[in-house]
Design goal:
Elements (H helix, E strand, L loop, with lengths): L1 E2 L4 H7 L19 E6 L2 E8 L15 E8 H10 L4 E4 L1 E3 L2 H13 L8 E3 L6 E7 L2 E7 L19 E8 L6 H8 L3 E6 L20 E2 L3 H8 L4 H8 L5 E5 L5 E5 L5 E4 L12 H14 L4 H15 L12 H12 L6 H6 L26 E2 L2
Parallel strand pairs: 2-5, 2-10, 3-8, 6-7, 10-11, 11-12, 12-13
Antiparallel strand pairs: 1-16, 3-4, 8-9, 13-14, 14-15
Helix pairs in contact: 2-7, 5-6, 7-8
């Protein structure tokens, strides 16, 4: 008997392992085997949805929905793999049941290469409980930093040769693998978290010099650039990095190509959000996919926003990431609606030549959001 990851059902149902390869025309025998490399912490995410309000101290709250899935860096790795990119992840996994589930979900369910990952004996998996209500979420996490590898090895100072790499920058911290990935020809895409020091020193993000694109949210971008407008912040960041993308929440996203001066702004797609967990990671994965495929800036931005919008309509960060069949089903559905704005449809017309001839209607059934059912070995 073995616990199989629920997400393995998703690959067959929603296009996570579809035959659509967005980089098909760019591949060559001497090209890199890996499309995107990333590293970070994998959490087990437990998500409660359908709460009417935040939990009240001293009471018990019942959620109308619940899901479990690999989280943390697994959100972005899964989103990349479901979009057809050959994804390599370097991460530590506990040797508990949670770690086994997350490993199986990513390696078997999503086809992610875990050759640079490791299982750590006696280390328990980090866990996050997320509660979604009123369009927001509250999270409680627990975990300890994984012990370093016992001996010398490639984890993760020597990343594989890849077309792209995704890094999480932190003030005052430099990671050798980022520079190594850039030297190896990878386009490095970076996001950043909240600066708890309050300094917001752009010069402290030393690895930014190795990056192809930087994708902060509006508040982060304005604080780092000392501006009061996210679009001005994006223009300022484009002086430091080739492409600056600032996410604007419900307003969409704005991007500046510093090498050409080109700008693009795409509004967000209005959806009824069930769970926003991992939407930012899915956005980055969509933008990376379009960039590596050589799409125009505005198409990359629109595609990133679309994938993020589709993700918030489902449970969890990794389980909610859409595949090509879901994107195709959405495109057929919106074109069939008489009330659609023709100009808005034209914004996504580039999908027409990309999408598979999916035969199932929208919405598509996704994976059962639980740790897993037991099936015969």
């Amino acid at each position: 008997m073995r616990t199989h990851a629920a997400s393995s059902d998703h690959a067959a149902q929603s296009g996570g392992s579809s035959h659509l390869d967005p980089l098909d025309g760019l591949r060559s025998p001497d090209g890199p085997c890996c499309d995107v490399f990333l590293t970070g912490t994998v959490f087990l995410d437990i998500i409660f949805t359908g709460l009417d309000s935040a939990p009240v101290r001293g009471t018990e709250s019942w959620a109308r929905g619940m899901g479990s899935s690999p989280g943390g860096v697994a959100n972005m790795a899964t989103a990349l793999a479901r979009l057809g990119l050959r994804t390599s992840l370097a991460a530590a996994f506990g040797d508990d049941h949670y770690g086994e589930y997350c490993w199986d979900a990513l390696a078997q369910g999503e086809g992610i290469d875990l050759g640079m990952s490791r299982t750590v004996p006696g280390w328990h998996s980090p866990v996050t409980v997320s509660m979604a209500y009123e369009g927001e979420r509250t999270m409680v996490s627990h975990g300890h930093e994984a012990p370093p590898p016992a001996g010398p090895g490639p984890f993760p100072q020597c990343p594989p040769r890849a077309r792209g790499a995704i890094a999480a920058l932190a003030p005052g911290r430099s990671e050798e693998w980022i520079a190594a990935a850039a030297r190896g020809g990878a386009k490095v895409f970076a996001d950043v978290g909240w600066d708890d020091t309050g300094r917001w020193d752009l010069g402290g993000l030393t690895d930014l010099e190795h990056c192809e694109a930087f994708l902060p949210n509006a508040e982060e971008a304005m604080r780092y650039t000392r501006t009061d407008c996210p679009r001005a912040a994006a223009r300022a960041l484009a002086e430091k990095v080739p492409v600056a993308v600032v996410t604007l929440g419900a307003e969409g996203a704005y991007a500046v190509d510093g090498s050409t001066g080109e700008t693009a702004e795409v509004p967000a797609i209005a959806v009824e959000a069930l769970d926003p967990t991992g939407a930012g990671d899915v956005f980055v994965a969509g933008f990376v996919t379009g960039t590596l495929a050589g799409w125009p800036l505005a198409d990359r931005l629109a595609f990133a926003g679309l994938t993020a919008a589709l993700s918030v309509q489902e449970f969890g960060g990794s389980l909610s990431a859409p595949g090509w069949s879901e994107i195709a089903a959405w495109w057929r559905q919106v074109r069939a609606c008489d009330a659609q704005d023709p100009q808005a449809l034209r914004r996504y017309a580039f999908l027409e030549e990309l999408l598979p001839a999916a035969g199932r209607p929208w919405p598509l059934r996704r994976a059962v959001p639980t740790i897993g059912f037991r099936t015969p070995a």
